[in-house]
Amino acid sequence: MSISVESPADFHVHLRQGSISKLIVPHVRQGGFNLAYVMPNLKPPITTTERALEYKAELQKIDPNVEYLMTLYLSPDLTPDEIRKAKKAGIIGVKSYPRGVTTNSDGGIESYETYYPIFEAMQEVDLVLNLHGEVPSDANANIHVLNAEPTFLPHLFKLHKAFPSLRIVLEHATTRAAVEAVKTCGPTVACTITAHHLALTVDDWAGQSWNFCKPVAKYPDDRQALRDVVKEGHPRFFLGSDSAPHPPHAKSTSTPAHACAAGVYTSPILLPLAAHLLESFGALNQLKGFVSGHGRAFYGQPAEQHLNQRLVTLRKTSTKKLVDGEYILENESLVPFWAGKEIGWEIVEVTNVD
Amino acid sequence: MSISVESPADFHVHLRQGSISKLIVPHVRQGGFNLAYVMPNLKPPITTTERALEYKAELQKIDPNVEYLMTLYLSPDLTPDEIRKAKKAGIIGVKSYPRGVTTNSDGGIESYETYYPIFEAMQEVDLVLNLHGEVPSDANANIHVLNAEPTFLPHLFKLHKAFPSLRIVLEHATTRAAVEAVKTCGPTVACTITAHHLALTVDDWAGQSWNFCKPVAKYPDDRQALRDVVKEGHPRFFLGSDSAPHPPHAKSTSTPAHACAAGVYTSPILLPLAAHLLESFGALNQLKGFVSGHGRAFYGQPAEQHLNQRLVTLRKTSTKKLVDGEYILENESLVPFWAGKEIGWEIVEVTNVD
């Protein structure tokens, strides 16, 4: 059995900077993907058009055959003028991170109102707002990593109501509540789902830091809701891997004082993994839409508009293969998600489409 | 400020076997405790009176000054005759593990009805039933590590109704639901609470395997319920540390294939830690009941009946001390809970009471 997918598109990926980028940027295509929607959370964050274009050039230098869609980091540095400038320069979206991980934590999600002039401009020029949809933990309010996403959803509704034409993507949804929230919103609101959240539940990261990411994988019923909406083929739900590389020493937990970095790394195996997982819950017939069509349609990025169109063919393997345990380049190394586990699909052919 | 506690009693502790026991058994008294209610989950489990007495002798050989209360492991090997024999030999309780939910629980129970003749005999001779109150995870039923305890509670109610005179202890409660369940039961049902569950929530073990234990620490509201019932001084709630030693390599997570062992180790710092935590939520005036009086009363083990009575005096330190990072004996080593963190209390005097 084989499946061919036209120019797979990953609508949420971290490509970092410096030497680690040289290791991971080529993994976009190795994992079967032609398009990378690039997160702006560098150090310092990408907050200007100029810096975003510089960053895009750096990525193109590493692999010129990937289509990089660039984003800015929502911060008080942004202005409506910068938004218009960004649009003209081909920037696609603006990413909002919850308070606590921003450089200016006062300007976090509890004060979205301060960003309304920015959102007004974004709506006007049609830039996409990408939301990391979690509120910070607060023990006094019983907010913790497992309800941080549902607790955020009122913000989504409020923003959508205030800016009904603003295209919004709720990133890396992990809960039934989030799936239902996005469904009830209008056609301007979409949702990315990672590959790993289709595989994991809380039981998988309990005592296993390598499966720990933010948002954390939730309960089995939440995973079921994610699987169901993929299986349903809902056009406003599509893949954003949130592939996030962290060196092995940052993912392991060696001492009680050392908590691990949040994030799992799926890029090098992304398309086979997506096929493997969708097959596991009977959604293989939705693979093309999930990994390419739906996201491209929402973002207005049809494959035929881009250079380097490819038809990527996956084949079900007769014997299951084990995923490589580690990727190394010079002083950088990474252990991918699913390392040492079986995967039932492989990329067998890539055809350039002219 | 200082507090003196009469013969502190830890009503749930794992003392293991072999070389690790030589390291950890002395920690019972180092941590300020005179009495250890000893879990039977060895390899193989303690399922006979004879073996329990042998094990007790092994522990006494390591430290003769601790009062060891011994338990049997609920399994199909047990008979009503063995229960009566156990009672005559001074065994105190029978521990029930659900199958597969924690360390060495492969031989745990799947259905309680088959044990009703055992419980009948236990009720008759007054042996205590110690329940690990969790059901195994089951993704199809949306049962996971965070609702495994609330899902178990109907079993508690059913057992209590069927055997109203059987003394039952719900071990290491972690949820508001469990606290409320035990409160609504009659005077024959009590509950242990660990020190670490008074400190941790799910956010603390997310990405930090060293804080991972079973049952897992739950939500902030659950921790609040545990703190509240301690603060209230409810006589059927008392300390059982569930102190569970695992070597550092088993607690760290070095690779994606290696999940860490469940359990945190509190024995060597237990009494100062309990004082530190109770003070943090305004319950220091309940310390004596929580770490000695309540449990001794429920178990009918007043301090004055035992040899080696001690008055243990804690003092609030003027400068906070850091908890030792590691305990080593020959080839064994252990990293305790709270390692490297500050603690505000220390044991300053131990007076033998004749």
UniProtKB/TrEMBL annotation, chains A, B:
Gene3D superfamilies in the record: Metal-dependent hydrolases (3.20.20.140)
SUPFAM superfamilies cross-referenced by the UniProt entry: Metallo-dependent hydrolases (SSF51556)
Pathway(s) this gene product operates in, as recorded in its UniProt entry: Pyrimidine metabolism; UMP biosynthesis via de novo pathway; (S)-dihydroorotate from bicarbonate: step 3/3
UniProt entry keywords in alphabetical sequence: Hydrolase, Metal-binding, Pyrimidine biosynthesis, Zinc
GO molecular function annotations of the record: dihydroorotase activity; metal ion binding
Gene Ontology terms describing biological process: 'de novo' pyrimidine nucleobase biosynthetic process; pyrimidine nucleotide biosynthetic process
GO CC terms: cytoplasm
Residue intervals of the Amidohydrolase-related domain: 75-181
Lineage: superkingdom: Eukaryota
Enzyme Commission designation: 3.5.2.3
Pfam families given in the database record: Amidohydro_2
Family membership noted in the UniProt record: Belongs to the metallo-dependent hydrolases superfamily. DHOase family. Class II DHOase subfamily.
Protein name as it appears in the record: dihydroorotase
Protein source organism: Gymnopilus junonius (Spectacular rustgill mushroom)
